[in-house]
Amino acid sequence: MNPISSPHAHGARSVGRVMLLVMLALTPATVAGFWHFGWPAITLWCVTILSALISEAFCARLAERPAGPLLADGSAMLTGWLLALSLPPWAPWWIAAAGASFAVIVAKHAFGGLGQNLFNPAMAARVMLLISFPVEMTQWVAPHAAGLSAALDPMTALSVTFGGNVPDAMTSASLLGHVKSEASRGIALSQSLTGHWDPFSFGLGQRAGSLGETSALLLAAGGVFLMLKRVIGVQIPAAFILGVVLPAAFAHLLAPDQYLPPLAHLLTGGVMLGAFFIATDYVSSPSTPLGQWIFGLGCGLLTWVIRTWGAYPEGVAFAVLLMNSAVPLIDRVTRPRIFGRRRNGHSMTAP
Amino acid sequence: MNTPALSTPSFLRRMLQRWGAHPEGRKHPAADTEITVLPLPPRLILPLAQHIGAPARPLVQAGQYVLRGELIAEAQGAISAPIHAPTSGTVIGIAEVPVPHASGLAGPAILLDTDGLDEALPPDHTDPFSLEPAEIARRVAAAGVVGMGGATFPAAVKLALGQKNPIPTLILNGGECEPYLSCDDRLMRERAPEVIDGARIILRAIGGERALIGVENNKPQAIAALRAAAEGVADVEVVEVPSRYPMGSEKQLISWLTGREVPAEGRSADIGVMVQNVGTAAAIHRAIRFGEPLTRRIVTVSGGAIRTPRNLEVRIGTPLSTLVAFCGGTTEPVARWVMGGPMMGLSIHSLDIPVIKGSGGLLGLVEHELAALPEPGPCIRCASCVGACPIGLMPLEMAALIRSGDLKASVEIGLKDCISCGTCSFVCPSQIPLVQYFNHAKGELAAQGRNRMKQDAIKELVEARESRMEREAREKAEAAERRKAERARAKAAAAEAAAAKASAAAKTTEETTA
């Protein structure tokens, strides 16, 4: 075989560049998260990413490969970043460290490393944490909870992240959690939503929730940026959002007192982060255009189902993981039609 | 005014087509320079295999003097093309020399020392429209015209298809989607009437109704020149197509222009379409109008290392080193010499190799023009290759199957449909050599096929031998049987005769004694 064969040119895209663009797209929502939740959010973000990088280097050592190129591709940093955004902003350091190392070591490298993992590492870690440490993982703070003074004080931040001292007075329920617990007490939506739901401030992220999930509009803007840069396709985000909105709108029309309006579904929890940044993860999503529609719709639909009838108030992470497991099957049945062939693989015939 | 009427479904289909890549054009400055005629080199090297199919059979001997246009090697077999002397001079002989081939191996070539006089056979002016279609095909075959776009399929073999069944649509391929190359662009700009006339001649040869000339929209001057030349020609239409690699691929161009797909196991003629390169059309024009065989072509010499990139009109057989020297040599160390375009061209190891009929470009590429990473990374399943594949394949899956050694499964998901355009390798962010895997696997399959054929042939021979030996043994046995029976019969007869004789003798004795 000729060692040097065509093509003799290559496009500008590299794995590192793709990861960099995704991180760039995440920056506005991340900064908004820092702004809303203060210094503890920044330390948490740092601890998560650092843990992810250390875990990556550790795995490289185990595999007896140089750690440099592995760290340079940016995938471990991105995993850490995405996980940080889905954590409660004032979570203790060991949540971040345990989650990030689980994501990198177990969810990624145990499957064979970059490109081999079946499940989205950040979501696998988030679900592991949620199941193992339900209290720490559902301790939300209100934006600007302690007033700007505390949120802006780095020393307090260190004691929050490393000492685990979250004053009770600062905690707050997320909208989904609040609605779920009220519903379990038989209180209708029209009542439980009053004073808790305001599309405008929710879109900007002024609400209790995960570090980077709250600024729905900034996440969507980052997602659109990635689409314009052709890093992600339209299929998965559009299908994800449709998968949530369609059943939500239908149910809300039928029983407005029982089912949240579609806009509330979109602007709370992890839908925007999930649709644009999590479900679009190359490795754990389908490769075919049709498969991506199916995958996105499934993620959206399962999110709505889990939120509506499941035991947990939020369902994005579960929905993504469930659909991840279906990806090999989806890819298999949605192969594109080959040029000059019919769907069944037989050659077209001359008319 | 010259744009085709788009029906809504085909318009929608085009909008939904997302295949392809957008490699950086890099067609300038070569595309800005007029075609320059390269002076005659002292010696021409004319490989016998300049086309797909059986190599030509040499007709000349060492020491023979030939004129430009003289037949020096004849076509051999159904898919083959003759070779003509590109100028006057003396044949030195036939030698094994380095030829443009992926293997880098040598091949037989006729060596011709030029005398600088460039004396030609007298031209044969003919009005193509007084010729019968079959006669046009015959003359194109005699002129040795092959596909000039690089595929080098003998043009007359295609034209002959038109004799068998009607092909209403002719498409001239002016896509030239390979980066760097601008030989077709310059040809269309400077010799548009030749191209249009060639299209009309081909239409007559195949009994076609209309010709569409597809040109990528990054060549506005070529489009304008062709449209001006086609003014008043009712059945020739110039159509702008988007610049997207591989738009110059036959199947993709047909699909874009007509909305129809060539069946995977069929040919374009099956859907009533023929595609010829614009350069081929110009060559056919010259072959029919002036009886001029194919002995020269336009070659783009470009790449980061070439001092003055330009388009040269070159006699077939000119060593590549002559082209490079004429372009001022190189300014930087050349990381790779490529014959053809960077997407599908051939990496060559020596500039002693000659220009052949299919050589559209010679590129001296420097390090930064090549792929950036020395080592491919792991596949991150980004599906860029799936979106870019013009055939609708899943290159990442095919490559994974080939890596695991499962050629059969990779064929099942479309390996044989791959057109080796290289778009998947180009877009892969991990720089996985996808198309290289496929070409390797196809080669492997071909070798297996040949092996199987060989084994089948051997098996057949062995079986034939066995049955022959069986038959012979049987015949021998039968013959022995026959002989035995005969002997027995003869013995019996002899015994009878003896008995008869004895009895007769006895009788005589009796008689005598009596």
TrEMBL record, chain A:
Subunit text: The complex is composed of six subunits: RnfA, RnfB, RnfC, RnfD, RnfE and RnfG.
Domain of life per record: Bacteria
Enzyme class: translocase
Location(s) in or outside the cell: Cell inner membrane
Gene designation per UniProt: rnfD
Gene Ontology terms describing biological process: electron transport chain; transmembrane transport
Pfam family of the protein (one): NQR2_RnfD_RnfE
Enzyme Commission numbers on file: 7.-.-.-
Listed transmembrane segments: 18-36, 42-63, 93-111, 235-253, 259-278, 290-309
Cofactor requirement: FMN
Presence of keyword Chloroplast: no
Membrane topology designation: Multi-pass membrane protein
Function (record text): Part of a membrane-bound complex that couples electron transfer with translocation of ions across the membrane.
Keyword Cell inner membrane in record: yes
Entry keyword set: Cell inner membrane, Cell membrane, Electron transport, Flavoprotein, FMN, Membrane, Phosphoprotein, Translocase, Transmembrane, Transmembrane helix, Transport
HAMAP family for this protein: RsxD_RnfD
GO terms for cellular component: plasma membrane
Organism for this UniProt entry: Parazoarcus communis
Record-stated family: Belongs to the NqrB/RnfD family.
Protein name: Ion-translocating oxidoreductase complex subunit D
From TrEMBL, chain B:
Membrane topology: Peripheral membrane protein
EC id: 7.-.-.-
Location of the region described as Disordered in the Swiss-Prot/TrEMBL record: 467-492
Top-rank EC class of the record's enzyme: translocase
Residues noted as binding [4Fe-4S] cluster 1 in the record, renumbered to the chain: 379, 382, 385, 428
Basic and acidic residues: bias regions: 467-489
Short name of any one Pfam family annotated for the protein: Complex1_51K
One Gene Ontology term from the biological process aspect of the record: electron transport chain
Keywords of this entry: 4Fe-4S, Cell inner membrane, Cell membrane, Electron transport, Iron, Iron-sulfur, Membrane, Metal-binding, Repeat, Translocase, Transport
Job of this protein: Part of a membrane-bound complex that couples electron transfer with translocation of ions across the membrane.
Family membership: Belongs to the 4Fe4S bacterial-type ferredoxin family. RnfC subfamily.
Protein name (Swiss-Prot/TrEMBL): Ion-translocating oxidoreductase complex subunit C
Source organism of this protein record: Parazoarcus communis
Protein encoded by which gene: rnfC
